[in-house]
Specification:
single chain, mainly alpha, 10 helices, 0% strand, globular
Length: 286
């Protein structure tokens, strides 16, 4: 069963991620009074990028981008295989470092600025990701995803604060407004494309596929809050993931980008008020 889950994740995550990205573009367009692209537009974009000539600004950028993709795939595979969620989050953080190194490997000032902002974003959300793993342990007695989903109750009952905090940092991880400081999926970016300014062709396509893996990984963590030993928790978790993703799209379209100091301060405050308080409550009742 674990092997099947890993294979399905590796094969279907880019497909499901691309469909969600297509739905994101359509919903964003409708919220802005536009027609929007077709649902399969992300796959058309990938096909066009892979058909372009391979041009890299240096010899290591493609290697670093591939490392970013591989580490994200490994992190997601560990989650869907029911392994240690703490190790999964550590690997996820390592993947982000490869992305920063890829953006820093060229001399473009826009890429360098995007890399520095990505570092600031990591400083903002990493405390909550570490607290999240500890929160699952306090609520269920285990770091292993397989044990967490076999609990007689959903973890969200003991971790509502962690869920709210994680939805907050998901906007940063998905690079949506108001926290799309390092790069943006929209045209309103003051640094051209920030992190991905010097990425083109197959290099940019690999970056997009890696983002799809990360998207499904993050939604898998959201599902982890709701899944328990009962069969009905699985469709509930799927609905929760779709609602969470819709809320991220809505927030993306109704908010303007904030400055990096606001991002850092607000994320730490949210970490303290949601994850910190929930952590203390779990410690007291344990």
């Amino acid at each position: 069963m674990q092997v099947l889950s890993v294979v399905l994740y590796l094969l279907l995550a880019p497909l499901v991620g691309g469909l969600l990205e297509g739905a994101d573009r359509i919903l964003t367009a409708r919220m802005q009074g536009r027609q929007g692209p077709p649902l399969l537009q992300p796959f058309y974009d990938l096909s066009k990028l892979f058909s372009k000539q391979m041009i890299a600004v240096n010899n290591v950028q493609m290697l670093l981008n591939l490392s970013y993709l591989v580490f994200l795939a490994v992190a997601g595979a560990m989650l869907f295989a029911g392994e240690d969620i703490l190790m999964c989050l550590f690997i996820l953080s390592t993947a982000d470092m490869f992305l920063i190194l890829a953006a820093s490997s060229d001399s473009s000032p826009f890429s360098m600025m995007g890399a520095s902002r990505e570092m600031i974003q990591m400083m903002a959300y990493e405390p909550l990701t570490l607290l999240l793993a500890v929160g699952f342990y306090l609520a269920t007695g285990s770091f292993h995803v397989g044990d967490i989903i076999r609990m007689p109750y959903s973890s969200v009952l003991a971790m509502p604060g962690f869920l709210l905090g994680f939805l907050f940092i998901m906007a940063i991880k998905l690079r949506k407004s108001p926290f799309d400081l390092s790069t943006s999926h929209h045209a309103h970016q003051e640094m051209v494309k920030g992190l991905t300014t010097e990425m083109a062709g197959p290099t940019l396509a690999i970056m997009s596929i890696a983002e799809y893996y990360e998207m499904i990984l993050l939604l898998g963590i959201v599902a982890l809050f709701f899944i328990n030993e009962h069969w009905w928790s699985w469709p509930l978790a799927i609905v929760a993931c779709l609602v969470a993703y819709f809320l991220e799209i809505l927030w993306d379209n109704v908010s303007a980008r904030v400055k990096w100091k606001t991002l850092l301060n607000s994320c730490w405050v949210v970490t303290l008020l949601t994850g910190g308080l929930n952590f203390l409550i779990l410690m007291l009742i344990r």
